[in-house]
Amino acid sequence: MNTESNDNTGSTDPLVRVENLSVAYTSEGHDVPVVRGVSFEVETGRTLAVVGESGSGKSTVAATLLAHLRHGSRITSGRVELAGQDLFGLDRAGVRRLRAHDVALVGQNAGHSLTPSMRVGAQIEESLLPQRLPRRERRAQVLTLAEKVGLPDPERLLRRHPHQLSGGQQQRVAIAMALAARPRVLVLDEPTTALDVVTQARILDLVAGLSRELGLTSILVSHDLGVVSRMADEVLVMRDGAVVEQGRAQQVLTAPEHPYTRLLLASVPRLEDRGLAEVDQDGTRTVRPRTPVPEDAPDAVSLRDVTVDHGSTRAVDGVTLRLRRGEVLALVGESGSGKSTLAWSLAGLHAPSGGHMLLHGGTEGDLAATARRRPLDVRRRVQLVFQNADTSLNPRRIVREAVRRPLRFFGGRSRRDADRDARTLLSDVALDPDLSGRLPGQLSGGQRQRVGIARALAGDPQVVVADEVTTALDVSVQASVLALLERLREERDLAFVFISHDLAVVRGIADRVAVLRHGRVVEEGPVEAVFSGPNHPYTRSLIDAVLDPSDPSDTGGHGPARSQRPPDPPSDTGDDPVWHDLGGGHRIRRWETGPETARDT
User: Fold this and answer.
1) What is the mean pLDDT of the chain?
2) Which CATH architecture fits 16-266?
3) Secondary structure of residue 22 in the 3-state scheme
4) Is the pLDDT of residue 250 over 80?
5) Cα–Cα distances in Å, from 255 out to 230, 432, 541?
6) For the whole model, what pTM was predicted?
7) Identical topology for domains 16-266 and 300-518
8) CATH no. of 300-518
């Protein structure tokens, strides 16, 4: 293969061609199909998005462009070609050349794919080794790549280890490593799933700009249809290993023909939703209005001037909030804003360094201590559901044990009673109790997240901290988990602290929103008031960064980002010089505007 140039923009022949591809793995002597008869073509410089739910076969198809199949799988029919060459006809040396020069992968979580013990500059330089450049030239190339992907102060950051970078910076390093090979094809497998909306927008703009500059052909695998609308020229929709619809992005996303595509699009939360959407199998969409929390509802938790320090760094700075019984308070903000640190302190994983954090309704309501030091009745009243059930559940213990242990710890139940109650809790979260004997790895992502919710409920809590619990889920599974949380809130009068970077999800499930930036609350209020405005400029930037796949202005591939101009400041009507009080519980921290940034006071 010719790897010397990416300048193929004059050619109309497809660079990537997949013809009638079928993949299967063998189980108990029988072939189990994973991909069935998939065909598509991608021209140089174009982006094809492959979408579908978990198990649809989209990642398997994308991996074939690197001549890769999972262990035990094989191609049963078809071809995968790059520039006319059959990739599965390559010998081992050919496959190495393919992955070193022609096709590069940017995965879902750069924090997991980067080597934690190596400085990031050395990892980028390692990607340049197949080019056999002199060391001085390699180092110059590393700096050029770091600048190209927009790493701030690259000479300093390149000397850091991955854990010393933010999620967006880690992903930029991963993109730099991919570009080091000067590839013709870039495979992007859920590249922004774990990123907040502002960082996601920056990464998408970066990839789009580099694709135009370098003439890259991209295959984007994603369940986020907003990302697809922003990036893709063409869309291919898969279900159960087969293609159900494909075509131009704007056509597929704004006027889908297949019922499954309509179902996926209808399941996507929207900023204008004033409640959670209920979607029928034919894609009919009904938004269920939220039942307002009574004004006289008692407080579940109150925070006053809470600070949390990590060594010499102040992660949370003087936060004052209240959460009522039966209420959902959403914490939003970019990575590093302090939202997870604040929530984890509430759950007892990290002690606050100052201020007051009180639980109302416990025998001893002080939450300043870590969970181990809290009285048992207080400890059980605040429970946490983690973002990733894959890592929070013990892979060697059956799911019934995950729920049974807190039942015995908090309730003193016998093993038999705990087993019975565990099955009941699994049923309460809409899981078949017969699944209770399975290991986490034998469940789907949505089922594992429901196990995590059942485990949190085992303590009979008053407050549940839900930390990005739907981030990694397909849109239809996400919708079902959100509906579950809403039902549990109503049935059990639970208060939720709901952390999310998806503001459309927040609009549907939250009663109130607190926006954090650099550890401070910059805006707080009822969800309707916050989403209607006026807003702090930072809040407006978060809202403007949300991508709506049903909006024609957001579709078509590589379009310009929407304006994020801050609104005019509201009048300072409050007595407190730090806050603009707009009434009804809606308040905005004052800010000073500069030529490019807004600085809080």
Assistant:
1) 87
2) 3-Layer(aba) Sandwich (3.40)
3) strand
4) yes
5) 16, 36, 29
6) 0.85
7) yes
8) 3.40.50.300
